[in-house]
Amino acid sequence: MKVAVEGCAHGELEKIYQTIQCIENEEGYKVDLLLCCGDFQATRNLDDLQTMAVPQKYLDMCTFYKYYSGELVAPILTIFIGGNHEASNHLQELPYGGWVAPNIYYMGYAGVVRVNGIRIAGLSGIYKGHDYLRGRFEYAPYTDATRISVYHVRQLEVFRLKQLTGQIDIFMSHDWPRGIYNYGNKSQLARFKPHFRDEMDKGELGNRPCEDLLKLLKPKYWFAAHLHCKFAAIVPHDEANDSSGEGGVEDDASSNGGNNDTRDKQKGEAVTKFLALDKCLPKRRFLQLVDIECPQYAEGEVRLEYDLEWLTILHLTNHLTNVKTSKYYLPGPHNAASTERYNFKPTTDEMAYVQNKFAADLLIPKNFMRTVEPYNSSNESNNGHVPQPKAQINPQSQQFCDALGIDDPVSLALIIGGHELSYSSVLNESTDTEFNDSTISIQTEQSSLNLSSSTGDALSPNQISPFKRKNNMGLKLPKPIAENDSGDDENGGVCVLDETKNPDELQLGNSSSADEAEKLVINSEDVANKEVYSERNAEVTTKPPIKKFKRRNQSVYMNEDNEQD
What we know:
With about 575 residues, the chain is an alpha/beta fold. The chain has 19 helices and 16 strands. It has a 7-stranded mixed sheet with strand order 10-11-9-8-7-6-13. A 6-stranded mixed sheet has the order 4-5-3-2-1-12. A 3-stranded antiparallel sheet has the order 14-15-16, with no helix packed on it. Helix 1 links the parallel strand 1 and strand 2. Helix 14 packs across helix 15. Mean pLDDT is about 80; it is low at about 240-265, about 435-550 and about 555-565.
């Protein structure tokens, strides 16, 4: 299977596809898949452009909007991860992945998919230690700070990826794994990028979480971008190298021109072939073609599927979703006294349960739909001031979260921030009937939080999301007794029980008025420990009732004469 790997796309999709077309014409074969390693810049319009964390002079619509609007169609299946120059509001609508245009699929904050049986994992963003332990609290419109922090890698995504078992064929990241330069031609890299030398000497160049994932998952291929240069390395996975990861490897790799593949194969060691690529510019090495063995491949057929183990991990760790600004810690083996689960490697039964949610069909639905007006280059109003857009809930994410029984982080962040959920409206003229191969029914009035009872069937109380646990922790009060006697109209604000409403809710108001006043709905959990008085036959007086108190041990302070009087 022919796979094209791209470094930083920077919105130049049209040029990338044209380059691939030229290669196909010269070599006489068809490229089946394109992988982009970040800085994709999926800007649909000028509103999206305002959410990018780049200097003003670099704000350019480029060409993605043509594929979003339908003016152009991606000629091959394209899968990408996020980097640090993105239309963050657009990608945040798809935290678990989804289509950004026909035939162009985003992997989300982190994700695993299968293409004709090839297992591809990805991690979006770049690593910054001060944000790594925080929740996903950002949402549009962004501040100057959140416009940057929104694309920083968080611990939960790395934690989930560490639960994976089995072979990973391809791993994609925007950052390089820390220390990867020790397994390639380090001296050549230092000559090409002199400002890297100091970071390499200090052992600081690269992403620490990616280094951990590299050693743990041991993928066959690892593709990256970000540093705008081409660099290749081969990482052997034996105990000595995994424990140190430093020194002793550089000299061997350098003496072989950065290629010690034969030596490692002869020893029978597992190796990872690492490749970083440049950004899409003339005379830059931004594209590489790779032949990958694919037992399920049939020429001309490309099948994109969910990975069942990854879906199960998302389902099992949903309760760990955090959208607060404060730092928090995930469960781990360090606390021996804790009974909280920290190993979320799925069991066979757990995977069967999740598979049943998808009716045993893991084919990713082609349910792309346009939810905003695409950029129009001929529009005269393009020169005016454009504000940032507000956060919206994408129908794709809503459908996915409802099917899997998990929470949308943006929805949680908006609720905690005191904002109403805004659902993207599907443009009637935008639905691509050729691309949409399945009938989709999206109820935009429903919340993207799946609160159905079936969601937590296989979960313990501690594994239910914080918002679902909140509903289960309140006291369940019996139904209040409300007598419907004559004369109730005179007592405004009397508690009235409406059997047609939710029995767990109380309504205050004048229930018998011809023009019914607006009712205030109070959840029964909020009135715990309060008594509902229903005796309304007593005569109502203008003076409030006076409660008489009897002093404790009153007889001690009174003589017999006073008592007789």
